[in-house]
Specification:
Radius of gyration: 19 Å
Helix content: over 70%
Number of helices: 8
Number of strands: 0
Order of helices and strands: HHHHHHHH
Amino acid sequence: MSIFRKIEDRSAFAGALALLFVGMNLSVMMGFYFFPGGEAFSLLQSRWWWELSFSLQILCFALMWVCHHERMAEAEGWKKARAISRFLVGMAGVSTPSWVIVICAANDWFYHPLALMDLAYYAGVVFAFWVVLAYVLPVLIALVMRKPAFIHLGLKGQKNGGMWLLLSPFILLFAVAAVEIPRGSHLHIVIWPFLTYLHGAMPYLVKAYAPKEKAPKVEA
């Protein structure tokens, strides 16, 4: 397929895939919860779903390692610290389904589902933790180290277009919410995890498809 032939940075694409797989997994879980009548919720109690989720976790961990290990090995000085921090944030992000499943099992939430407001509360806590880990912490480190490039999002050269590209998943989420909330639908909650992870994958995708700079020719 042409979409794969145009990939310039396969390691960055691996990181994007890891995040997209996790977002899809979480959205499917939310979809099971909100399925009309709750018939699909029983799928979350099945062994095959647990095995599928944990197998997907292993794949996503591997993809995230492929994405970051060369950058961590090749970087020096403060850039190595940035590479390591991005790797840790990425690994924490892709591990979300595992600890969600473990916490739900420990609290017996698969057999006694949470109320909607409780679910929204815990989802908000997870989202806030992600914001702190992915944005607040890097900004604080950048301020302490006086290294603004520490928070570089991989959209250099995109100008305002890069900002809108990065925000596009949340713009779509707010648009869906504006339509679905008055109707009493929960579609916006179902797609929330996937769009959040799509937002996180944007810098990876931009880097994956960005043309590589050609080395200047040296004339004899």
